[in-house]
Design brief:
Bound molecules: D-arabinaric acid, zinc ion
Distance between the termini: 29 Å
Helix content: 40-55%
Radius of gyration: 22 Å
């Protein structure tokens, strides 16, 4: 039945948004089998690096003193600073409130009372199931770092939970070769600083070995804002001779997350990075030079979004995804996604969460979907006004593409 009334659209969009199973294609989450890497609970939530950097804005506590505190004490410090002595209006602050509200946690300014609720959630498997269920998340793509010694060991174990899909993340390889080749040597790869034929073969062997261990759905790197390709540089050579040939061999998409400016304030540790304006010609070269290679692309700088969307229009081997990191706020999600709808139609991956702690799935997706709802209603009402015959099934299909299928089809993932 074609839709005839504008008010039908809201209902259909709401229903479809509630029903559609999401695949969260970039997170830092791990299932419980990854032991210490699987993060849940209020103290972890308060230690989120977005909240930590905000806390320091209100505090003259020496950085070292903060980092010497236990995780519990740091959580208390963040809580006192941002939630007791301030109103938590930032996106990360409101996000925590959304989590508490969605989980029905009795909220007061007394952190210990909130902790009591979280302490009662003893079965981590059931707890995670409940959160994924509430957020309607079907599958979660992890970020898997073979250079992290803790994670490397954990890959010796079996990880049977099929809902968690690996992504092989190789930042150190491409971005810090001079620190990375000694690491490769210590892992048994016969490499040297100069990219000799043997070194190239050994780096390829390293990538293949980890593909065999992880069976990733894609390979990923984040790249600095000054990333430049092609260039007479190690990172160009590593891309052309090591990474891209192995991706081609396994038909693995490469995710490029472009525009980081790392360690702007190293005292903040993980919270010390920011964004920089990047240059798009490099991406253009990659897409043109490797037409068979699929690239999943997101960029960190707001100022790059317009160029990115126009470039994405030119290359079908590129799929734009998500509003990354500092762009993951309602205002910027709306601005950026509307630009994408206008120029790409429904052919982009609406969002990824970048969650590090499980409960964050609740707020990141609730906030993003709230914005999406408004845009979808507007889009379909505009089509109706133009006399377009559309059905609920059309709308459901489109929403499925934005939240799941565009990714699944692009990386050629088997359906769950
Ligand atoms: O968003 C974040 O939590 C950042 O710290 C980064 O991890 C970023 O998303 C990345 O994947 O590099
Ligand atoms: Zn991330």
């Amino acid at each position: 039945q074609p839709i005839t009334q504008p008010n039908e659209i809201e209902k259909i969009v709401d229903h479809a948004l509630n029903q559609t199973k999401i695949i969260d294609m970039h997170t830092h989450l791990f299932p419980p089998s990854f032991e210490s890497l699987c993060l849940t609970g209020i103290d972890q939530l308060l230690n989120y690096h977005y909240l930590v950097s905000e806390t320091f804005l209100w505090s003259d506590l020496p950085y070292e003193t903060f980092w010497r505190l236990s995780e519990k004490e740091r959580a208390e410090y963040v809580w006192e600073t941002l939630f007791v002595h301030n109103s938590p209006v930032s996106e990360a602050g409101q996000g925590l409130l959304t989590i508490l509200q969605m989980l029905d946690v009795p909220v007061s300014k007394d952190l210990n009372q909130i902790r009591r609720w979280f302490n009662q959630q003893r079965d981590v498997h059931k707890y995670i199931d409940r959160i994924m269920d509430m957020a309607n998340i079907d599958r979660i793509v992890m970020t898997n770092d073979p250079f992290d010694p803790v994670e490397r060991k954990l890959w010796k174990k079996q990880h049977p939970d099929q809902r968690f899909l690996p992504a092989l993340r190789l930042d150190p390889l491409l971005n810090h070769w001079s620190d990375t080749y000694p690491l490769l040597q210590s892992m048994g790869y016969d490499v040297m600083e100069k990219l000799t034929t043997q070194t190239v073969e050994q780096v390829q062997r390293f990538i293949r070995d980890w593909i065999a261990v992880m069976n990733p759905v894609y390979v990923a790197v984040s790249l600095p804002y000054y990333f430049n390709y092609p260039q007479d540089s190690v990172s160009t050579a590593l891309l052309d001779h090591c990474l891209l040939p192995v991706c081609a061999e396994y038909r693995l998409p490469l995710a490029l997350m472009i525009g980081t400016k790392r360690r702007v304030n190293p005292d903040l540790q993980l919270a010390g990075d920011m964004a920089g304006h990047a240059e798009l010609t490099s991406l253009e070269h990659l897409c043109r030079n490797y037409p068979q290679q699929k690239f999943l692309v997101t960029m960190l700088s707001r100022e790059n979004q317009y160029e990115l969307v126009t470039l994405a229009q030119k290359f079908r081997n590129m799929m734009v995804f998500g509003c990354w990191w500092f762009l993951n706020t309602p205002q910027l999600i709306e601005e950026i996604s509307q630009m994408r709808f206008d120029q790409l139609g429904n052919r982009f991956i609406f969002q990824h969460s970048d969650c590090r702690i499980f409960e964050q799935l609740l707020y990141k997706w609730a906030h993003s979907k709230q914005v999406l709802r408004g845009m979808l209603v507007k889009n379909y009402q505009a089509l109706l006004e133009r006399g377009w015959q559309q059905t609920a099934a059309d709308i459901r299909r489109d929403i499925d593409k934005l939240l799941c299928r565009n990714f699944v089809d692009f990386v050629q993932l088997p359906s769950s």
